[in-house]
Specification:
mainly beta, four-stranded antiparallel beta sheet, globular
């Protein structure tokens, strides 16, 4: 791949859209603007050494291919060693949480009533944990009680409080739950055929319940692997996500 200013890059194509992401032969990620690319071409020869050079016989090569082709789910429950469950919301108040909004406000944007967390949705901003978390299975329920709305769960959020912090967003916009949004160029590998810009669309048509009913979200992060499950259906995955300790944030984006 050659840019208009004469730079050359080689590697594996991870994302192909308005931004092009390569994993170089040294394992680094290179992000390029599609408008900056002059030309690109696919290599005709593999960079992998031939089997004899690796000292592999026919049977060993066949075993290696079988292993590489076998389906594996690093986020399968059998592969997860879960710790003691943590109740992030105590059902009474917002202890151990803090807020940040796009503009000063005296409104009680987030409040707890009858054990349920409620949000009026404005001004834009979020409620976030004061503690940070890296690997977890986060389960939550949500609903829009009136009209369809927007929202999201930000995980591994880092940096300064702002709208919005660097993070991975598990989308909660009505009819789009299960989409992934990449905020501030988090390193990750997503399906290029379902990705446009920062958004990776969900795998299947929406399986959200009718407006006003409760939906279930399960967000699993382990190392670089991410899985989003909506109402029991896996709707999205990503790999090679940046592995950092970050906040969990719940967005206010205009709707109750």
């Amino acid at each position: 791949m050659t840019t208009k200013n004469g730079e050359s890059f080689a590697g594996f194509l991870l994302v192909d859209g308005s931004e092009v992401v390569l994993q170089t032969l040294t394992g680094q990620r290179q992000v390029l603007s599609a408008d900056a690319i002059e030309s690109r071409s696919k290599q005709k020869t593999s960079i992998m050494p031939p089997a004899p050079a690796l000292g592999l016989g026919a049977q060993q090569l066949a075993d290696l291919c079988a292993y590489l082709l076998a389906p594996r789910d690093p986020l399968a429950r059998d592969n997860l060693k879960l710790g003691t469950p943590i109740q992030l919301l105590n059902g009474k108040d917002l202890s151990d949480w803090t807020t940040h909004f796009s503009s000063p406000t005296d409104a009680q944007v987030f409040r707890v009533e009858g054990g349920i967390l409620k949000s009026i949705g404005r001004p834009r901003g979020y409620l976030r944990t004061e503690n940070t978390y890296r690997d977890f299975v986060l389960t939550l329920q949500w609903r829009f009680p009136g009209k369809p709305g927007n929202g999201g769960v930000l995980v591994r959020a880092i940096g300064q409080d702002k709208v919005w912090p660097k993070s991975i967003e598990a989308q909660l916009q009505s009819r789009n739950a299960g989409d992934i949004w990449n905020i501030d160029r988090v390193g990750m590998v997503v399906a290029p055929e379902r990705t446009q810009g920062r958004r990776t669309k969900k795998l299947a048509p929406t399986n959200e319940r009718p407006l006003g009913e409760w939906n279930n979200y399960e967000i699993t992060l382990r190392g670089g692997d991410l899985r989003l499950t909506v109402n029991g259906l896996v709707q999205n995955r990503a790999t090679d996500c940046d592995i950092v300790d970050g906040w969990i944030c719940l967005q206010a984006e205009g709707a109750a």
